[in-house]
C-alpha cells in the first residue's frame, strides 16, 4: 500500500518561494524578506525557513548568506524535482499553454521491460498510461508511463486529459521524493511519427525516468520522447552544488534554461 506522507514544511516553503521567482513576483535583484519576516508570514520557526532558503541558494535562484541579505539572482534557475517532473508546470512556467491527449490508461501484467523499470517481478499488475503532450497545441512529447497497481489505480479517478498526473498523485499523498533520469536519442517509431507529426525514424530526445519514494520504492517509470526542435535539455553546474537537469525550449538561446 502507498505510505501517505505529508510534504515537509521546508519543501512547501521552498516551493512557494520558488513560485514567486518563477511568476515574476520576485524579480532579479529583489531583496527577500528577512528570516524573521518569513517566519511570521508562514507561522514557523527559523529552521524550515533556513532550509528553504538554502535550497533556493543551491539552485542559483538567490544569492546572499554569510551576513549578506538574500536577493533574487540573475543566474540560470535550476528546476526543482516537482517542476522538472511535471511537464505541465514546466510548460506553464515557460510561457506556454500545456496540453495533453490520452491514448490509453490500462491495467495489465507488467512486461519484462516495465517490470525491470518498476523493480518488480514480471507479470506483476501495473497501470500503463500513454499520452501525447502539447505546447500551445503543437505535439511536443510522447509519454509512456507505468505505475505499480496501487499507485496507478488512483488515475482511474482522474481525468488524465486535464493536466499534471504528477501533481495529482502528489495531492493524493503519493510520496514521490526523488528521481533518476537518463537522456539519450532514439529514432521515431511509426506511432511516434504519427503522433508527433515527424518523419518515421526522425531523431527524438528520450528521457527515461524512475521516480521513487524516500525509501527507494519505485512509484513511476516513464519513457518520454521529445521533438528536439521544440524541447532540449540543459545542465547548469556550480562548485557549490550539482544542479538538476532542466528542459529548454529549443527556440530559446541555449544559455537560457527554462
From TrEMBL:
Coiled coil spans: none
Leader sequence segment: none
HTH gntR-type domain location: 7-75
GO molecular function: DNA binding; DNA-binding transcription factor activity
Organism this protein belongs to: Murinocardiopsis flavida
Pfam families given in the database record: GntR, UTRA
Record keywords, A-Z: DNA-binding, Transcription, Transcription regulation
Name assigned to this protein: GntR family transcriptional regulator
Key word Transcription present: yes
InterPro entries, alphabetized: Bact_HTH_transcr_reg, Chorismate_lyase_/UTRA_dom_sf, Tscrpt_reg_HTH_GntR, UTRA, WH-like_DNA-bd_sf, WH_DNA-bd_sf
Lineage, top ranks: Bacteria, Bacillati, Actinomycetota, Actinomycetes, Streptosporangiales
UniProt GO BP: negative regulation of DNA-templated transcription
